[in-house]
Amino acid sequence: MCGIVAYCGAPPAVPRLLSGLKRLEYRGYDSVGVGLLHRPDDRLCVHRAAGRLTDLVAALPNSGLEAVTTGIGHTRWATHGQPTAANAHPHQDCTQMIAVVHNGTIDNADEVTDWLDARGHKIATEVDTELIAHLIEEHLLEACDPLRASPVTTTEGPADRVAGPAALERLVAAVAGAVEHLRGSWALAVAMDGVPGIVLARHRSPLLLGVTRTALMAASDALGLGPHVEDVRELRDGDVVALAPNRQVSWYDRGGRAVAPPDPLRLSVRHVDAELGGALDYTSKEIAGQPAAAARILDTVAGRLVGGRLLDDLGLPSTLPVHLLACGSSAYAAAVTARLLTQFAGLRTRVMTASERIASPSDGDVLTVAFSQSGETADVLACLQDGRRGPWLAITNNPGSTLARRCDAVFDIQCGPELAVAATKSFTTQVLAGAALALALSTSRSRRDILAWERVLLAVPDRLAATDALAAPIAAELASTFAGQPGWIFISRGAGVPYAQEGALKLKELAYRWTEALPAGELKHGPIALVTSGVPVVAVTAMPTQRLAVNLREVAARGAQVITVGGRIPDAVLPAVLPAREPPWGPLESVVALQHLAREVAVELGHDVDRPRNLAKSVTVE
């Protein structure tokens, strides 16, 4: 789960690389690095740092950067090796003349390591990306001496052998030869000492090429390209692409043969509002931004739910069984949607964790709804590559993403970029999109019934705003009391269960607390053994409240500290403003209170709520 940028063209390259990395830092922020080619001889310099982009900027030299016209950059979420400067990208070969940045995973890393060891290469890190640099080095050396039998040494530099007008083309051939050894996924950008230009390669990991008036830029998603890109093309699986400083682009297939470039794309890249605007952090800003985000998406569906107009606009059928694919917070939004589709719309529905999806011969034609905030979730994209039957709908916040481009229709949740890692407004708007879709698919329901629930749905922004105002100060008080508790239990009934699960996930993500989330009726089937004196039990109030009240008396009798969220059970501890009659999508407004609780506990414990440890916003490796 890493971010890649590359720049080739007129100076200044370094500010463009750094700004692209800043926009991609949601993909990882435990280490970062750049590889820069300096004029006039394209001398390669690599700079790396553990931590965030600010740590790299502090380590860059104070002079000489104005001469950089070409460079590659990477911000990392560690999958191989500890998040140290030594393991940060770019990675290099034995001679330190080749630099590689990579997003993806090399599945046959052990096999490649053994092969390189036998050829005399010295592997310096724990990171699979380093193997790619050595493979490129090996192919450059073999191109110069096909019968080479002696081990590689740090004095026999491949750059000396490929210098000259054909240097970039030879690097292309070496990259194409290197990837033939690999199994897995990769988006690569490669720079080399003395070689004017950059080589890109891609297999099962997104990589986009953008053209500006003065330069070529590449990035692992459109946000990294910046606002001045005029033309965008997505590399296909197997493509190897050479970028020259004069903005000339050459496309090759995996075998190194010249091919036509793919068609250009029209991407919608939204402006990133990076100002806190008085908020203490991006998490609190985005929690507070949920009423406005909800209003935006609801404005687009108002009046389109009765009579199938929303389905017609999306080009979707109304009678197929529905499969829902998602991971993380999106999976809980999918669970809400599935309950609606089954119980309200009367459709056969199946929810699948994308990483565990197993295609079934009995699937037949289905409508597959894929939930992904970023639209770049690798586990979801892999399901598309496994074969598909029937139409696919993407519910995403990124209409220019890989998922959106590959699906038949897109439901844009329009919540705007989330600069904090933990999902807040994207979860809420995914639920609203799912609710709108379910109401539109409820063809057996009366017009009057659909219109009545549409009015309740359209009032969600006001209830979210009221919950935000009521819950924030009380969540702070609860955090001061319960932050020291190492384990928490979240429960609910019926339509409230996915919200209890989402609340538990938020506490895990932000406060690093162990949580158990389950239907309240399951407590007696084992988990109640965890309840001891003082354990917080957070209950999201939902129908039937009488049965939930019984479960709360059971845990209270064993010493639990009960925190009720909502307003139906008397003396609710953490308020949420809910409709008088529970809607089919359940107590959505309760998530605002749960988000505040998780954030306040994390703040009480001194954690960085915007950049939780070990997490990235977009999970781009399986």
TrEMBL record:
Signal peptide: none annotated. The keyword Transferase applies. It catalyses: D-fructose 6-phosphate + L-glutamine = D-glucosamine 6-phosphate + L-glutamate. Residues 310-447, 478-612 form the SIS domain. It is an enzyme of class 2 (transferase). Coiled coil: none annotated. GO terms for molecular function: glutamine-fructose-6-phosphate transaminase (isomerizing) activity. Keywords: Aminotransferase, Glutamine amidotransferase, Repeat, Transferase. PROSITE patterns: GATASE_TYPE_2, SIS. Residues 2-246 form the Glutamine amidotransferase type-2 domain. Its EC number is 2.6.1.16. InterPro entries: GATase_2_dom, GFAT, GFAT_N, GlmS/AgaS_SIS, GlmS/FrlB_SIS, Ntn_hydrolases_N, SIS_dom, SIS_dom_sf. Pfam families: GATase_6 (PF13522), SIS (PF01380). NCBIfam families: glmS, PRK00331.1. This is Glutamine--fructose-6-phosphate aminotransferase [isomerizing].
